[in-house]
Design a protein that fits this description.
binds ligand BES; alpha/beta; 489 residues; 6-stranded mixed sheet; single chain; binds zinc ion; 14 helices
Length: 489
């Protein structure tokens, strides 16, 4: 994808996108007479009101731009950069199926262009995405690729900076969309072994040290959480370890991602309704892998260890069962109450294993609980942890990137919930505070290391299509985590 920037004197693109606030009647930025007249005729007609997500797609009789789309931004005083990203998504979601490949954006609004330009890139590339791997119809399979984005109304002195920022965003979004494909891929294709292969290919490409453990090695390491969860499936587990070590660094970050390629619930079987969605139960794993992909290109001076346990949770004849007691990697014993609370078991082993690197911080990211979706819906991920400073960093990066997190408490009183009669802890303690229980459980495996847990059950997936995104995988977390790591130096 090519990014170009320039002034607004000479607007030539296949498509011109004009963002408009409510009640705007003229566009001052454009200098071309013919274009000004065309636009003002439309604005004066009143057919377009500028409401948020409203659009008007027009074909012009000017040769360039051939198409103009007006994109409503809502009330000027209320519009945020977060809205802008979504508006960009709305535009490309409409234009990509029309086969439009070269986009032009008239940068407007009171935001600094260094902030708004990369947001346009992100929104446009995110909105154009569709998962079409298994569509047979040629038309539906047609490429939705954006080949060029031209940003108009940029001052000469800012051109270089804006172009650089936009090409970073464009690279990140390429990763995001690649991993959306992997999340959307059905679990009969995207098995633990296949996802491990994807990780290795990425690591080789990015020159990151990598190791993959199979069942035998996982058994040798006594990662009993991972072993137990995988036992009900014929697909063997994998444990992926990536080590990005730049020549110079001060801090080490350890990332852990939940990689359940399908979560049926196991013996504690889930109801059929909606179970097909549980192919996205590896979106934590892809958030970590996508982040490593981005890091391998940006090369920040931070050592990053990525640990990704990969399993399939099925109720086969040798499946683990409620009542089973597992001795985990760190020696703690866990009574299994529900085999559907499997994510915390595999992440716990990975976190405990990660301590051997003596990291300065650990972050795990997981589609961990339905309770988190109930609490926060799809607009924010849950965040919990044992270190205020780390949580504060992630929160502020969340505001900047638009991948927002909201903190839930992790007071020691909650530990009562997971006390077990027969083992050290149990994996579920009733119905109360479900998202917190998940985190309280994980806390038992991180020692004193600053740690944060991000629950993306609600943000990783849209059940229904949005005006700015197709239904399915959102690719949430890659932008957040790569920006957190950039700052963790
Ligand atoms: N993968 C699910 C959590 C989930 C639910 C993700 C909905 C996305 C959407 C997780 O493994 C799970 O099943 N959690 C249980 C925990 C319960 C048994 C304590 C849940 O949330 O119901
Ligand atoms: Zn589950
Ligand atoms: Zn799960």
């Amino acid at each position: 994808m090519k990014v170009e920037v320039g002034d607004a004197y000479n607007v030539r693109s296949q498509l011109l996108i004009i963002p408009l606030f409510e009640e705007e009647k003229e566009i001052k930025e454009i200098k071309d007479r013919g274009l000004i007249e065309f636009i003002s005729r439309i604005l004066k007609s009143g057919v377009f009101k500028g409401k948020i997500f409203e659009t008007l797609f027009t074909v012009t009789d000017l040769t360039e731009p051939g198409y103009i789309i007006f994109a409503g931004m809502g009330k000027r005083e209320q519009a945020t950069l977060h809205d802008l990203r979504k508006v960009a998504g709305v535009v490309s979601k409409i234009c990509a199926p029309k086969g439009i490949e070269k986009y032009g954006v008239l940068l407007r609004g009171s935001w600094s262009k260094k902030l708004s330009a990369p947001i346009w890139i992100e929104g446009l590339l995110h909105g154009a995405y569709r998962y079409m791997e298994f569509k047979s119809e040629k038309e539906e399979k047609a490429s939705h690729e954006i080949k060029e984005i031209f940003l108009y109304n940029v001052k000469e002195s800012e051109k270089e900076d804006i172009k650089n920022l936009c090409s970073i965003s464009s690279n990140i979004l390429r990763s995001v969309n690649v991993y959306r494909d992997i999340i959307n891929a059905p679990s009969n294709y995207m098995t633990p072994a296949k996802l491990a292969e994807v990780a290795i290919e990425m690591a080789q490409r990015g020159k990151i040290k990598h190791k993959v453990f199979g069942l035998k090695e996982i058994e040798k390491l006594k990662m009993c959480g991972i072993i137990a969860v995988s036992k009900g499936s014929r697909e063997e587990p994998r444990f992926v370890e990536l080590d990005y070590s730049p020549v110079k660094y001060k801090n080490t970050m350890c990332l852990v991602g939940k990689g359940v390629t399908f979560d049926s619930g196991g013996i504690s079987l889930k109801p059929w309704d909606g179970m097909e969605k549980m192919k996205y139960d590896m979106a934590g794993a892809t958030a970590v892998l996508g982040t490593m992909d981005v890091i391998s290109q940006m090369r920040p001076p931070v050592r990053v260890i990525a640990l990704v346990p990969l399993v399939e949770n099925l109720p086969g004849g040798s499946a683990y069962k409620p009542g089973d007691i597992l001795k985990m990697y760190n020696g703690k014993t866990v009574e299994v109450i529900s085999t559907d609370a499997e994510g915390r078991l595999i992440i716990a082993d990975a976190l405990a294993y990660g301590l051997k690197y003596e990291p300065d911080a650990m972050i795990d990211i997981a589609t961990l609980t339905g309770a988190c979706v109930v609490a926060l819906g799809h607009e924010a991920s849950g965040i919990l942890g044992n270190d205020e400073k780390l949580i504060r960093l992630i929160k502020s990066v969340g505001e900047e990137t638009g991948e927002r997190v909201w903190e839930l408490p992790l007071w020691k009183e909650y530990e009562e919930l997971i006390k077990s009669d027969h083992a050290d802890i149990k994996n579920v303690g009733g119905r109360d505070a479900g998202a917190i229980q998940g985190a309280v459980f994980l806390k038992q495996f991180v020692g004193d290391v600053p740690w944060a847990h991000i629950d993306i059950a609600g943000t990783a997936w849209y059940d229904n299509e949005k005006p700015y995104a197709s239904a399915g995988a959102t690719g949430w977390g890659i932008r957040l985590l790569s920006a957190v790591i950039e700052k963790f130096r």
